[in-house]
Amino acid sequence: MKEILSVENLRVSFPTDDGLVRAVDDVSFTLNEGETVAIVGESGSGKTVTSLSIMDLHNRRTAQVSGSIKIRDGANTVEVVSASPEETRSLRGRVVSMIFQDPMSSLHPYYKISNQLCES
Question: Going from the N-terminus, what domains does the chain have, and what CATH number goes with each?
Answer without folding.
Answer: 3-119 (3.40.50.300)
